[in-house]
C-alpha cells in the first residue's frame, strides 16, 4: 500500500516519538497481561519442549528438536503423545560431525495480525533451516533464534488485519533483515536454507529460500499435494538470469541440471567452490553475485481444515523420493484413521525407512503440522 507508506514517512518527529512511547506502553500492558493471564493458565497447552514457560517470548513458546528427538506439541484436549498441534523430528547424518539442520514450531504464534476473536491455535510459524558449508550450522542456529522475533516485530508494526501483500512484504523484509544481521564470521563460511510457513487464521503464507521444502497435503483418501514450495536451483531460468546479470557463473551438469551450482572463488576458503542453490541465508560471498536471501512468498487460502497437514523438511527427505510418493506414505502410515496417536513414535521410524542411516548421509529434519 504505497499511499500509507508515504503518509507514514511524512509524520513529524514528535508525532513518531509519541507513537513510539504509546507503543512501548501498550507493549508493557500487553506483556503484563500475558504474564498475569497466560502463565497461570499453563495447563491449556502442554508444550513439552518448553518446561520453563516464563522464558517464552510474547509471541509464543518455541519448540525445537535436538538429535534423534521427536518434539510433540499437543493441546490439553488431546493426549500429550499425539501431534495435535505438531511434531518435529531431526536426525544427524551418520558421517557428519554436527547436525546442520535446525527447525522450530511456534503454535500459537501471536502477533497483532491475529484477529482478536480468532482461536489462538489458528496461528503458527514453522521453519526448516538447513545449514551448508563449514559454519552452516552456526547460520542455521542464528536463524532459528532470531527469525521468530524479527517476523513478530514486522507483523506487529501495524494493527490487524493487513492485506496479503503487506504480510508477504513483511516476510520478505524479515528475511532481508535476518541476512543483514548474520554474524560476519559465520556468513563468510556458511549459509542455510529457510522454508518458513506462517498461518494467520484461514491463510497460509509460505516463504521459501533455497532447497528446503514445505508441502501442503490433503490426506485420506487421495493424499493430494495441494501446494509445494520450489527448490531454488541456479539452473532455473529466472534464477539464472538474476545470477548471470550480477556477474555470477553457473555450472550445470548436462545430465542432471538439478545438480547445478553457483561457482565462486571464495577468499575465506581460498578455493573455488559451488553453491547448490540460488537463494539462501548467509553465504556472503555469493550474495555479491546474485544469490539472494529474498524468499518466494505464496499465499494459500485454507479451503478446508479436514485432513490437511503441512510437512516441512530439509532436502535430505525430498531428495530421495517424489513428493507425491512421500505425501501418500505419510498419509497412509501416519494418518491411517484421522490423526494417528502414535505418530510421535512412528515419525522416526518413517524417516529411517525412507532414508536408512546405513545408506544415507545427509541430516534430515521433518516437521508435521496438522491445520
Ligand atoms: C541417533 O541414532 C542413530 C541410530 O539410531 C545413532 O547411531 C546415533 O548415535 C544417535 N545420535 C545421537 C546423538 O544420539
Ligand atoms: C478422491 O478419492 C475418492 C475415492 O477414492 C474419489 O471418488 C475422488 O474422485 C478423489 N478425488 C480427487 C480429487 O482425486
Ligand atoms: C591459497 O591456496 C594456494 C594454492 O592452492 C596457496 O599457494 C596459497 O598460499 C593459499 N593462500 C592462503 C592465504 O592460504
Describe the structure.
The protein is an alpha+beta fold and 371 residues long. The chain folds into 2 domains: 66-231 and 292-370, PPM-type phosphatase domain (Phosphatase 2c, domain 1, 4-Layer Sandwich), CATH 3.60.40.10; 237-287, no CATH class. Helices cover 32% and strands 25% of the residues. The chain contains 10 helices and 17 strands. The strands form 3 sheets. Strands 1-2-3-17-16-9-10 form a 7-stranded antiparallel β-sheet. Strands 4, 5, 6, 7, 8, 14 and 15 form a 7-stranded antiparallel β-sheet that branches. Strands 11-12-13 form a 3-stranded antiparallel β-sheet, with helices on one face. Helix 3 (136-155) packs antiparallel against helix 4 (164-181). The relative contact order is 0.14. One 2-acetamido-2-deoxy-beta-D-glucopyranose binds next to loops.
- The count of domains is 2
Instruction: Report the structural category.
Output: alpha+beta
Q: Find the CATH topology of the largest domain.
A: Phosphatase 2c, domain 1
For the record, the CATH architecture of the largest domain stands as: 4-Layer Sandwich
CATH class bucket of the largest domain: Alpha Beta
The general outline is globular
By oligomeric state, this entry counts as: single chain
Order of helices and strands: HHEEEEEHHHEEEEEHEEEEHEEHHHE
